[in-house]
Amino acid sequence: MSFDRRNFFKTICVAGATLAVGNSFGAVKQDENAIEFQGVLYDSTRCLGCRACERVCATAHGLPEAKDELKAGVIRNTSESQRSVINNHITSKGEVYVKKQCMHCNEPACAAACLTQAMHKTKEGPVVWRGDKCMGCRYCMISCPFDVPKFEYHSANPKIEKCDMCYDRIKTGKIPACAEACPGDALTFGTRRELIQEARKRIFESPKDYVNQIYGEEVAGGTGWLYLSSAPFNEVGFNTKLQNSSYPELSKGFLYTVPSVFVLLPPLLLGIHEATKNRNHSNEDENE
Amino acid sequence: MKTKMNKQIQTIAKDNDGGSIFKFILSELKPKGKLLTPFNLIAFPVIILGIVLIVIRFVSGLGSVTNLTQDTPWGLWIGFDVVTGVAFAGGAYVLTFIVYILKVEKYHSIVRVTVLNGFLAYLFYAGALLLDLGRPWNVINPIIGNNFGTSSVLFLVAWHFLLYMIAELIEFSPAIAEWLGARRARKILSGLTIGAVIFGITLSTLHQSGLGALYLMAKDKIHPLWYSEFIPIMFLVSSVFAGLSMVIFEGSISHKVFFNQISEKNHKAQNGILQGLAKICAGAMFAYFFLQLLVLIHGKNWDLLNTKMGYWFLLEMLGFVLLPMFLFLYSYRHRNIFMIRLAAIMTMIGVILNRLNLTVIGFKWDAASHYYPSWMEIVVTLTVIFTEILIFKWIINRMPVLRESPSWVEDEKI
Ligand code: SF4
Ligand code: SF4
Q1: How confident is the model at residue A270, as a pLDDT?
Q2: Which of A119, A161, A253, B315 could cross-link to A111 by cystine, CB 3.0-4.6 Å?
Q3: With a 6 A CB cut-off, is A196 part of the ligand 2 pocket?
């Protein structure tokens, strides 16, 4: 990302935004101060690797229980039948458990991608999928930087599966099933602000136990799910090369130019059309 | 309202020398010419097989026919049928711009066939998008306004496809009216042409680039040699020569296959047209190559060139952009029609390579297991292409597309 390129797009953006009749093409709103998103803090140093979270997740969402063994160094992935997995990573700090599920981004690429608003960032924070709207185009899968949404390829009525932070439970005042079930207190549910404070406190109090980073605080514009780890994050299955700015930002420049093209191009074309009209007297009929 | 419409239809029908329009259409539906041509012998079995596969796909899910995975959710049907197919359909907006806006009359005789081609390409290749949808019954949501995902590039592209198809249908509609002998309708419809052209060009610039913008958020998944924030502009510029190469290619074949439909005058004009198109292609390709070079320098991706993907990238850029560009230039200077055709074919291969490199080959290029299309995906793709060609032939044999318009059209001109 260098400056001149950004400026180039910005100029176009500003032109587009001023010319646009409404500002309907903006990506998902980011009014972080106004709304307090809720999220979950996962602390790998407290995780026992018991997989209780996996089991309650399966029951809570009517999915089959995972049968495969948890082996150190063997990476399992979430799938269309498993929204959350625990992995045992072999790292420079020894074996480290890490849970994996949707990150519930502040500005989710999946929701910006979705043309039916089936993927939706709720005001409470969870990013949910709504089957009555989804047309199964899988553009959310293309766009999610964490490769979270999964698709049922072998169904005539396929669903997109991904963690929804137990949105139905949150609405009734309960906390996500995994956070409730965790015997080691590795999962803490709360507002994002509280969780970041709590995470900072833990790092501050025992700096030897943690790498000095909260994964999710900044990556991809910030995520609802936050991580503390004893080993560097690139050793526990995270892509540390992801950008810190939000992903919907990447296509905003393009979307902002659309209204200005719509306003500027047709009159320009019409102008040229009028200007060239009399150039060719022998061909009066341009209506073919 | 309804009666008024009915009346209009009646008057339109009456125009047709008193005969019943429906009888006329019925008689036209029957195939003309030989059925057992070599093309049909290949096309029909493929289409039948393809239809069977499409049924299987809807009964037991996408996974039963395609090799798509959780890592590669878009494969051949999107990467080739939609993304590449639409680039090839770009000839229509470029030519309508040249003929109706810039008034270069030289190309007038090929506008109709190009617009028809563009329309069918959108109908079939963008229609292939429906095959790829997991829950196609919800496609209605973003159309009737249930749920407008206005922040979605795909929303924009889908809407533009729809509107552009209507614009192209209007541009083509005078030919249909001439076929039906509907004089009044022809007059009304041809009055709409210039509006449809302007609207169509605007839509085209936006969705040609929009197809590239679809992949902007997949920043970490596409090989850096193909990913840059300029993908939309690259897609737009390359759609110019992709579309025109298709016009050259298709025109060369049509001139052989439908030889006796084309007037002497237009036969003679053909070479001049091809040379003109070659010049435009070369210009657009130069701009494109220059842009690619700038992006490469800007992105500081030099070191990546000396990798396997780098050689592949160089092959695409040097072998299938720069080389055909020079061929176009050379053949333009030396009036070598064969070379123009060769250059057009190479350019088309280059565009296919480029679109597939971005959407399929370079997508998750570093993943452990890579996606390859299944034979069934290929058969369905061929089904789409063959059906399109058959419909194209059907229309060419009936409507005045390559042929001159009926004589009454001339009479009605002021
Ligand atoms: S991690 Fe992916 S699926 Fe989850 S909210 Fe972010 S973009 Fe959406
Ligand atoms: S697959 Fe469904 S949820 Fe995902 S982008 Fe498409 S319509 Fe939206």
Answers
A1: 86
A2: A119
A3: no
Instruction: State if residue A158 touches ligand 2 by the CB under 6 angstroms criterion.
Output: no
Pocket of ligand 1 from Cβ distances under 6 Å: A 102-105, 108-110, 127, 144, 146, 148-149, 162
Report which protein residue has its CA nearest ligand 2's atom 8. A114
Residue-level length of chain A? 288
**CA–CA separation, B314 and A71 (whole Å):** 43
Residue of B nearest to A285 (CA): B413
Report in angstroms the alpha-carbon separations of B90 from A259, B119, B121, B200, B244: 21, 10, 10, 11, 7
Residue to test with chain B: of A28, A137, A264, most B Cβ within 10 A: A137
| Min Cα–Cα distance to chain B from A169, Å | 25
Query: Which residues of chain A neighbour B215 with C-beta distances below 8 Å?
Result: 142
Strands A150-151 and A160-161: antiparallel
Which residues of A, range 267-286, sit inside 8 Å of B by Cβ?
269-270, 272-273, 276-277, 279-280, 283-286
Contact B38, B385 (CB under 8 A): no
Q: Does the structure show a pLDDT above 60 at A272? A: yes
Give the contacts of B171 (CB within 8 A, at least 6 positions apart): B92, B96, B115, B193, B196, B197, B200
At A210-249, the pLDDT tens digits run 888 889 888 898 899 999 888 888 888 888 888 888 899 8
Interface of A with B in 104-143 (CB under 8 A): 109, 111-118, 131-139, 141-143
Q: Is the pTM of this model over 0.80?
A: yes
Q: Do B217 and A112 touch (CB under 8 A)?
A: yes
> What are the two backbone dihedrals, phi and then psi, of residue A94, each rounded to the nearest 5 degrees?
90, -165
State mean pLDDT over A148-163. 91
Cβ pair A154, B66 in contact under 8 A? no
Task: Determine the 3-state secondary structure of A216 from DSSP.
Answer: coil
Token pair for A166: 């137990």
Model ipTM value:
0.85
Instruction: Decide if pLDDT at B413 tops 70.
Output: no
Domains of chain A: 33-249 (3.30.70.20)
Residue with tokens 């803490």: A188
- Chain B within 8 Å of A242 (Cβ-Cβ)? yes
Tell me whether A20 touches chain B (CB under 8 Å).
no
CATH entry 1.20.1630.10 includes domain B43-402: yes
